[in-house]
Amino acid sequence: MTIQEMIRDYFDGRLDKSYHLFGAHFTVDEGLNGVRFTVYAPHAKNIQVVGDFNCYDGWNHWMEKIDNRGIWQLFISNIGENSSYKYNIETEDKGWILKSDPYAFYSEKRPATASVLTYIKDYQWSDERWIEERKEKTYFDKPLNIYELHLGSWMKKGDDDFYSYEDFVSLLIPYVKAMAYTHVELMPLSEHPFDGSWGYQVTGYFSATSRFGDPKKLMYLIDQLHQNDIGVIMDWVPVHFCKDDHGLIEFDGKPLYEYPFNDLIENEQWGTRQFDLGNPQVKQFLISSANFWIDYYHLDGIRVDAVSYIIYFKGDESRGQNEHGIQFLKDFNSSIHHNFPGVLSIAEDSSSFSKVTEPVFNGGLGFDFKWDLGWMNDTLKFMSQTPHERTLNYAPLTFGMMYRYSEKYILPFSHDEVVHGKKSMLDKMPGNQEEKFSNLRLLLGYMYAYPSKMLNFMGTEFGQYTEWDEDKQIEWELKEYPIHNGLTRFVNDLNNIYKFNESLFSKDGDLDGFVWSEVNKPEEGVYSFIRRGYQEEILVVCNFMNRKYYDYKVGVLTQGTYREILNSDASIYGGDDNLNKFDLNSINENVNGKDYCLQIGVPPLSVLFFKKID
Q1: Is the pLDDT of residue 159 over 90?
Q2: Structural domain of residue 565, as residue ranges?
Q3: Which of 193, 228, 270, 355 could be disulfide-bonded to 364 (CB atoms 3.0-4.6 Å)?
Q4: Quick one: 345 and 290 in the same domain?
Q5: What pLDDT was estimated at residue 160?
Q6: Which of 305, 407, 518, 569 is catalytic?
Q7: Domain contains 127
C-alpha cells in the first residue's frame, strides 16, 4: 500500500495498522539510505525533527505538510539505528514544544524521554509452529491458566537494577514451564515514565519499555516462551494516558488525543487525560497499537484495562453509556480477530454491561473472555470470614453460579487484590499460620475446579506474606521454608491436574459441565460439585469449616470406582495427611438427589478431587 493510499484510509477511518504510515521508518529515497519521519499534528504551525544527529537543532530539518489535514513528513539521510529524536512543534498558543514520537518503536530509558530509532522488522522468529497452531485455538474448551507478573519486581538484580529481557529467558521460562502454567500475563510493557504507575500510564503505545532492553530482546523472550509452549498476554491501556509534557497531552498545542471538552478531558481518579474515543484518528491510533503488539511481538492475547471506563463516561453508569467507546471496543475486537485469528481479547470490566463476550455480529462487544470481578470479590469476602461466620453468610460463595453462563469468564486473583492495604492472598485468610495456608490451598483448589479459566498473580503460589511492592522483588526466600514450599508443590500439582483432566476445562460454558452435589447445608460448611467432561467426571469436595468429618456421604451421578487424585491436607503440601488412600466404590444410595454416593473422610479446611476411574 502506498503512502497516499494509507493517508486515504486513515482519514476514512479504516487504517488499523497506521504504524506502517506514521513513526520513523528506515527506508531508501532516491538512492539514499535514511529515515522517513511522519507525524499527525493538524494544529501545528511548523515542525522540526531534532535529535542527537543534529545536536537537537532542527534548523535544517523542517517537516513538510504532505496533506492539508495535518500529516507532516521528512526524509533524513545517513542517520542510523539508536539515534535519539523528538518533534519540535511550533504551536499557535504555546510557542515551541518538544514531543516524543507517538508512534516511536523504542524510547530512551527513563528519566530520559526521547524516542529512539530502531529497526523493528528484521527479527528472525522461530515460533512458526506455535503461530500456526494458535490460529485454530479458541481456549473456550481448552485449559487456560494464567500467571500474571510484573517483570520489574518478579526478580531483580538490585534496588534499581533490572534483569534484561534476555535474562528472563533463563529465569522466567524454566519456572513457568515447571509450574505448568499455560500462559503468562505481563503487566504493561508499553513505555511509561513512572515506575509506580506499573505501566498503566503510558507515553509509548508502540514502544516496548527500555527498562529491560531493546525491542528485539523482548521479541526473543516471547519467541522462547512460545517454543516452550507458553502463551503471552499483555495488559493494554486504551482509556487514558499520563500528562508528562513529552507525551500525548495537547500534542500539537491543543487537545488532539484527549477529549476537547472540559468535563471529559481529565480522569480525576488517576490524574490522567482521557482518550477521545469518538475521534477516528484516536481510535485508529489505539487499534493500531494493539495490532502492532500482536504483529511485531507475536502476543497471544491483549487484556484491555478498565473497560467500564470505556463503556460509561468516566466509568460512571449514571453519566450514561459512551456510544463512541462501545463502538471503539467493537471495532478493536473486530480488527484483531480479523487480522490475527486465535489471538485472545480479554476485558477487565467491573460493570454489569451485557454481551461483553458475545461476538460483534451477534450484537456483543466481541471479547473472548471477561474477568469475573464479581466472583473474585464475593469469594474473597467469603474466605476472609472465620469458619463460624461462613455458616451464617454463605451466599457470596454460591452466588456466582447464578450468572455464570451469561459470559465467558476468567477468574482473577490479580495484582489489584494484593496492594493498597488489601493484604496478600495468604494474609487475607483467617486463623493462625497453619490455618491461613490451609485456607489458601482450599481457595485455590476451589478456584481451579470452578467452571471458568483462571489467573493468579505472582507470589500467591508460594504464599507471600506482604503486599506486592513494585520496588522490590517478590519474597522468593520464603520458598526455603517447608510450609511455603508445600504450597508451591500444591499449586504445581493443581496446575498439572487442571491441565491434563479435560473435565476441568472442556465444558466451562456448558450447563451440563457443572452439577452441584451439596450446596444446602451451610451449617456443615461442606460444598461439593461434579465437573463433567466429554469422557470423564471429577467430584470436588470443599470443607470450609475447621472441623473433620468421618464417613461423610457425598452424592455422585454415576456408579463406579473413584480415586482421590488431590487432597490439600497431604503432608507434602503442609497438611496433616488425612487422606482417602484407597479407591472407593460408589454406594447405591440416594444422597442429595443423586442416585449414588461416596463415603469419604473430609479433613478440616480442605479441598479434595475424586476422579471416576471405572
Answers
A1: no
A2: 513-612
A3: 355
A4: yes
A5: 73
A6: 305
A7: no
